[in-house]
Design goal:
Layout lengths: L3 H8 L10 E7 L4 E4 L3 E2 L6 H10 L1 E2 L2 E3 L2 E3 L5 E2 L1 E4 L3 E4 L3 H16 L5 E11 L4 E5 L8 E9 L3 E3 L2 E5 L2 E5 L8 E8 L3 E4 L2 E4 L1 E10 L12 H18 L10 E4 L16 H16 L2 E18 L26 E17 L11 E2 L18 E5 L8 E15 L3 H5 L4 H18 L6 H15 L10 H17 L2 H13 L8 H8 L4 H15 L4 H12 L9 H11 L19 H14 L2 H12 L7 H13 L8 H18 L20 H11 L5 E5 L2 H13 L4 E6 L6 E6 L2 H26 L1
Antiparallel strand pairs: 1-16, 2-3, 2-9, 4-8, 5-6, 7-11, 8-10, 10-19, 11-17, 12-16, 12-19, 13-18, 14-15, 14-17, 20-25, 21-22, 21-25, 22-23, 24-25, 26-28, 27-28
Helix pairs in contact: 1-4, 4-5, 7-8, 7-9, 8-10, 9-10, 9-11, 10-12, 11-13, 12-13, 12-14, 13-14, 13-15, 14-16, 15-16, 15-17, 16-18, 17-18, 17-21, 18-21
Protein name: Prolyl 4-hydroxylase alpha subunit Fe(2+) 2OG dioxygenase domain-containing protein
Pfam family, one: 2OG-FeII_Oxy_3
Organism: Paraburkholderia ribeironis
């Protein structure tokens, strides 16, 4: 079976309307009164002498380059006179112009009121030309350009118009005084004026606009095409409900013509686009699909290198297209590598003219109809950045196309989910709050919408293998909070399973995770808790112990948590290896809350044997569980709580802490009798050796090291690192300067503070002993 993107792309081009991208012809005319400021009345056919007079008062026609307007006769060689300096009158002129506009409207298949506003009078002398370019929208509502060539003797100057692979060459020469030649083309068509080989040409240029609400011309009856598209879309919608379906979530069909955001709507589409829209609107509605107009954008950045002429440019950036008020060209540089590419769809329009509040959505190449339909597209905007310093030359470019975008109505939330978690989490939160405040049951449309959206979000939830930081955890908390508020136990179960499977657990989610788990059966909540702990216990044991403590608090059936508790204890004791040996995250340091939460949870779950193993392991591994860093703080916390003070494992931990403190208190505590100090220096360089000798010398209070700065800095850093009982100052006299080292009683003072703390902690632990 063909992909739907190819099938749809084969049908739509067969829907053609009566008009074309251009219209041209000749019109019988009674010559108008044409007057030009500074010259006077112009005789027609144009006389060479008056052509020279017109050139004398005219200005070189410029072209646009981004925000700039430039004059370059290698790009555009012609003369222009502003509309304000041109006066057209005569009894028949308005009637003649209306007749030309009517012919143009038919040729372009435009309905409704069409108006022509004079833009410029152009004078082409021998050699004049204008290279390939596009016209831009010069006034609101402009959709096309009309040129009227007045009678004059000249050769060459053909107008070439191109659009989507088609090209037409129009010879607009007109020497008959009773006729004018005209041509009109949609503003986004690429066109050029070939060189005038002899004589002069006088051309009026008009901007064509449409007023009011415009409806596209009705295309021929395309019942067969509409039926085929309807069947295609219906089959697609049915297939999308299958779990094995691989078709795209949305379809993007680029339009034939270019549109600015201001003119993008269903009722201002041009020609074939309008015909296709008329069929698609009906087919999409019959197939229960949503149809939108939108702007498709591709933004690329990357490395570049100079072309043949780029090094001589000094501006630092260049646009690939120039707008003369309108003209566009390519810059001379070459793309080396595209480093970043962002593809999005935005600026949504519905067939009824409304603008839905849909965020910009990403799109995939496989969603284009047909695939590869953007290949070979010229950029709408392009910037070249010259190499500076260590940075090589680079580029930025943007492609924009208007397109039809379709998706099955039943898949609206799946498409919306493509906007990403930043958008969907906020929307899910809003739905949960609306459902709660409405007091409805789970059969309500709001709940069902939230449930379906959550399903799409969970299916595409990104893995966070080894992440650390607040961002991913905040998203998990937000999701859990909304699911809990919705009482959506199906997705709570699925998300808690994903938390362990996708390495989403961080620890800060414990409170939200606990609230969510309590909506499940005790057995299921315990099983999911065990999965999370088994996956993460070796890396973040403290977070896992906190989770076990929170889950066990108030649990109706704490015995169900025994397997989860066993998994955590066995991991802590080294009896269970990490489930993923390639897990990139480094284990977090052990802190007192790990012991506090674990022994608290084990008491609630009533597994004293496991608690005994934990205490035995902790006391037997002083390198990992230091007395002052871990055991004493944990014992103080646990014995300070009435709920845990009498636990046997806590009493054992308390006893070990008391023994450690009492032994240290029993040690003599007196200030040093002389200037001898401990020598903790391990560096054996000559200068540190001198420092060591100074430290143990009972008779020396001061040592002066006269040395280069790097030597002084080294010795001073060793003193700080090893906590030597020495104060350091620099004496900045002489050369080199001197480091003055003076002994102090820092170690003694630290011991005094430690003795005070030890006595207080013994008192607190003694209270725990009495409680026991």
């Amino acid at each position: 079976m063909k992909a739907i993107t190819r099938e749809l792309a084969q049908i739509i081009p067969t829907i053609r309307c009566h008009g074309d991208f251009y219209a041209s012809g000749k019109s019988e005319i009674v010559m108008p009164n044409l007057e030009v400021e500074g010259v006077g009345r112009i005789a027609l056919p144009l006389l060479p002498v008056q052509a020279g007079q017109l050139v004398a008062v005219a200005a070189r026609a410029p072209y646009g380059r981004g925000e700039e307007t430039r004059v370059d006769t290698n790009v555009r060689r012609t003369w222009q006179i502003a509309a304000d300096d041109v006066h057209l009158s005569g009894r028949s002129w308005a009637e003649t112009l209306d007749g030309i506009i009517a012919q143009v409207a038919i040729g372009l298949d435009v309905t409704g009121t069409v108006s022509a506003e004079l833009y410029k009078l152009l004078v082409y002398d021998t050699g004049s030309f204008f290279v390939e370019h596009r016209d831009t929208e010069k006034i609101p509502g402009m959709f096309a350009t009309l040129v009227v060539v007045l009678p004059s003797a000249c050769d060459g100057g053909e107008l070439v118009v191109r659009h989507r692979g088609r090209e037409v060459c129009l010879d607009l020469s007109c020497s008959d005084s009773a006729q004018v030649s005209f041509a009109a083309f949609y503003a986004d068509c690429v066109h050029e004026v070939r060189p005038v080989t002899s004589g002069f040409r006088l051309t009026l240029v008009f901007n064509l606009t449409r007023g009011g609400r415009r409806q596209p011309a009705a295309p021929p009856e395309y019942d067969r095409e509409q039926a085929a598209i309807t069947a295609l879309l219906r089959r697609w919608a049915v297939d999308k409900d299958s779990p094995d379906d691989s078709s795209p979530e949305k379809l993007i069909y680029p339009l034939e013509y270019a549109y600015t955001p201001a003119e993008l709507s269903f009722d201002t589409l041009k020609n074939a686009d309008a015909a296709a829209a008329a069929v698609l609107v009906r087919a999409a509605d019959e197939a229960a699909c949503d149809l939108h107009l939108a702007l498709v954008s591709i933004e690329e950045t990357g490395s570049a290198e100079y072309g043949n002429y780029a090094p001589r440019r000094r501006s630092g950036w260049h646009r690939a297209r120039h707008d003369d008020d309108d003209e566009q060209y390519d810059d001379d540089f070459e793309v080396v590598e595209v480093i970043d590419r962002i593809q999005s769809v935005s600026d949504w329009r519905r067939p009824d003219g409304s603008r839905p509040a849909i965020a910009a959505l990403p799109f995939e190449e496989k969603e284009l109809c047909p695939p590869g339909s953007f290949d070979g597209l010229k950029p709408d905007e392009q910037h070249f950045h010259e190499a500076t310093g260590n940075e090589g030359a680079s580029f930025e470019r943007t492609y924009r196309r208007a397109a039809f975008v379709l998706w099955p109505r039943s898949r609206r939330l799946a498409v919306f989910n493509q906007a990403g978690l930043e958008v969907t989490l906020s929307y899910l939160k809003d739905l949960a709050e609306r459902w709660t405040s409405g007091g409805e049951d789970q059969a309500s449309p709001v709940w069902r919408e939230a449930h379906v959206l959550a399903d799409h979000m969970l299916r595409g939830w990104p893995a966070s293998h080894g992440y650390s930081g607040k961002g991913p955890a905040d998203k998990v908390i937000s999701m859990l909070t909304s699911l809990t508020q919705l009482h959506d136990t199906v997705h709570i179960d699925a998300f808690l399973s994903a938390i362990s499977a996708k390495w989403l657990y961080h620890g800060s989610e414990n409170e939200a995770l606990t609230r969510a788990a309590r909506l499940l059966s005790p057995e299921r909540a315990a099983g999911l808790t065990e999965q999370i702990i088994a996956t993460n216990a070796q890396i973040i044991p403290g977070a896992c112990a906190g989770l076990l403590a929170q889950i066990s608090r108030g649990a109706g059936h704490p015995e169900h948590l025994q397997s989860a508790a066993t998994a955590l204890v066995e991991t802590l004791l080294g009896q269970r290896a990490r489930s993923d040996p390639d897990y990139p995250r480094r284990p977090e340091p052990i802190e007192p809350p790990l012991i506090v939460d674990l022994l608290t949870a084990l008491d609630r779950i009533d597994v004293p044997l496991l608690a005994g193993h934990v205490v035995e392991h902790v006391l037997g591994n002083p390198a990992s569980f230091g007395m002052d860093a871990i055991i004493v703080p944990a014992a103080l916390d646990l014995t300070g709580r009435a709920s845990t003070a009498n636990i046997a494992s806590v009493q054992r931990l308390r006893a070990a802490g008391l023994d450690h403190l009492r032994r240290r208190i029993a040690e003599p505590l007196e200030p040093p009798a002389d200037f001898a100090r401990a020598n903790p220096v391990v560096c054996r360089c000559a200068h540190c050796a001198g420092l060591g000798q100074f430290l143990v010398d009972p008779g020396r209070r001061e040592w002066v090291l006269k040395a280069a700065q790097h030597v002084r800095s080294h010795v001073e850093s060793i003193i700080k690192q090893r906590s030597c009982d020495v104060n350091c100052t620099t004496r900045r006299t002489g050369s080199p300067h001197s480091l003055v080292c003076t002994k102090n009683q820092a170690s003694y003072k630290r011991r005094v503070r430690q003795r005070k703390d030890d006595l207080q902690n013994v008192g607190r632990l003694d209270i725990g002993a009495k409680r026991g």
